[in-house]
């Protein structure tokens, strides 16, 4: 514990139980979870890599903003199997119980990729 200026004790995020961190991470959007969490500290990186945190993979919010030549932008679902799915299944190491695909944005290749693993 670290003493605070008001005389109390403060515990850092690194002192949270790994299961609590994993539960928090599962509630983050995919960008924060994949791009920010593992870079915070060694403890967060270890919790990020824990296969139990990847039991449920929800790809329904896996979208990016695409800007067109006319300046308009739109949310699009990038190809899943070639971009994200291999990385997530590697993190999960056979602990996946659920995968939620975006509606209308999956291919037979996405399903076959999962089935083969």
TrEMBL record:
Protein species of origin: Amborella trichopoda
Matches recorded under Pfam families: F-box-like (PF12937)
Domain F-box: 19-60
Protein name from the UniProt record: F-box domain-containing protein
Transmembrane feature ranges: none
InterPro entries: F-box-like_dom_sf (IPR036047), F-box_dom (IPR001810)
């Amino acid at each position: 514990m670290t003493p605070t200026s008001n005389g109390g004790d403060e515990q850092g995020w690194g002192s949270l139980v790994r299961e609590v961190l994993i539960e928090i991470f599962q509630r983050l959007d995919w960008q924060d979870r994949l791009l920010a969490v593992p870079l915070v500290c060694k403890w967060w990186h270890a919790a990020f890599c824990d296969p139990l945190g990847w039991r449920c993979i929800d790809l329904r919010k896996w979208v990016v903003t695409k800007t067109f030549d006319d300046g308009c932008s739109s949310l699009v679902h990038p190809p899943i199997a070639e971009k994200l799915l291999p990385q997530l299944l590697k993190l999960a190491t056979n602990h996946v119980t659920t995968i939620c695909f975006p509606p209308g944005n999956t291919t037979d290749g996405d399903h076959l990729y999962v089935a083969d693993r």
